[in-house]
Amino acid sequence: xxxxxxxxxxxxxxxxxxxxELLWILVRSAFFMHSIPIPSRLKAMLxxxxxxxxxxxxxxRSRVNISMPWRLAIGDHxxxxxxxxxxxxxxxxxxxxxxxxxxxxxxxxxxxxxxxxFDLIVKPIVIEESxxxxxxxxIGPGVTMAMGSRCLAGAVVVKDTASKTTxxxxxxxxxxxxxxxxxxxxxxxxxxxxxxxxxxxxxxxxSL
Length: 208
Prior knowledge:
alpha/beta, 7-stranded mixed beta sheet, 5-stranded parallel beta sheet
């Protein structure tokens, strides 16, 4: 059983002085963690000031939470959606032309549940070029998403993905992209048919 009062985190190195991290927390609160549409160029410039490597044409939407930008690298022409969280206890590398959709969570940290001391475990995340992370997806510590791969909305990705594959589910597994698209189309067809049926009923009983 874990004993949280025995937790010791002295091995983990934050990478910067405390004052520098505090300054980042203040800047993050002022420019990143709200709904005010701050220009992406300004956000990219601020990230670079705190040690991040950010390419050209990067779009950073509102309420993006980056814990340690000095361990973050983003390529050219990437989109970072609203409410994205990047827990960068270990390095996070995002290649060019990647789309990180709303509320995606890139998590480089976990704990050793088998030890009473609940030791911290950190592993880097690599998102290679031209990947797409669906809304509310979770990318776990140590995961590499190979070039051109994508995960569907809500997927929990805890293993590496192969190039140009689609994964989805909990935990994420390889999914035939045509089957995934057909499933989505079927969902929309059922929803549209239900909507039309409800309108027809309203017309017949004179409620419109």
